[in-house]
Amino acid sequence: MKLLFDFFPIVLFFVVYKMHDDSHQGFIVATVAIIAATVVQVLVLWLRERRVEKMHLVVLAIVVVFGGITLALDDEIYLKWKPTVVNWLFALVFLGSEFVGARNVVRRLMESRVKLPDPVWTRLNASWVVFFAVCGALNLYVVYNFDTDTWVDFKLFGLMGLTLVFVLGQGAYMMRHMSAEEDAEGAG
After folding, report:
1. 72-75: long-range contacts (C-beta < 8 A, 24 or more apart)?
2. DSSP letters along 55-86, please?
3. Which of 14, 83, 86, 180 could form a disulfide with 156 if both were Cys (CB 3.0 to 4.6 A apart)?
């Protein structure tokens, strides 16, 4: 359910865009929709939990800024850059977490539920850095080499599909190392 809630603004953008025949006008209306949906998403989180994760606030700020510039200048390119900015920002945060603090981002998020050897946490975090960097670059490749319809499809299905495959791969990798960690604990 949380995953659907997190992807709600992107899905709404896609649906609103596809409902319009004129791709530019559809893009502009979909931009308004994603800004509104992201604001609503953050408000619902606040009302439900009385707190909002930093990630949601950062995404909200980027959507409002890039969406606002798109609307003000009537130019799609600014919102099309948003996935790249978000992905590259996450890549920098995950990379920086290797050098700041005692634990990297992946370890901080998952260590309470999963026990893994230190080098595995480092490799998992590094793989997220690469994943975010590649997704940002792929977005730009699609932005500058394909039409808006293709980009909208890629934004929803391509990036979400890549994320799903990556997360499943991460899970398989972690499972392999979790059993090795449990065997080592059992032998000790």
Report:
1. 74/28
2. HHHHHHHHHHHHHHHHHHHT-THHHHHHHHHH
3. 14
The pLDDT profile of the chain, 188 residues, written as one tens digit per residue, is: 665 678 899 999 999 999 997 789 999 999 999 999 999 999 999 999 999 988 889 999 999 999 999 999 999 999 999 999 999 999 999 999 999 988 999 999 988 888 899 999 999 999 999 999 999 999 999 999 999 999 999 999 999 999 999 999 999 999 888 754 554 554 44
Q: Are 132 and 166 in contact (CB under 8 A)?
A: no
Q: What are phi and psi of 112, to 5 degrees?
A: -70, -20
pTM (2 decimals)? 0.87
Specify whether 181 is located in the same domain as 160. Answer: yes
Tokens representing residue 90 in the block: 């996450």
Kind and range of the H or E run holding 98: none
CB 40 within 8 A of CB 31: no
140 in the same domain as 64: no
User: Cα 64 to the chain's mean position, in Å?
Assistant: 16
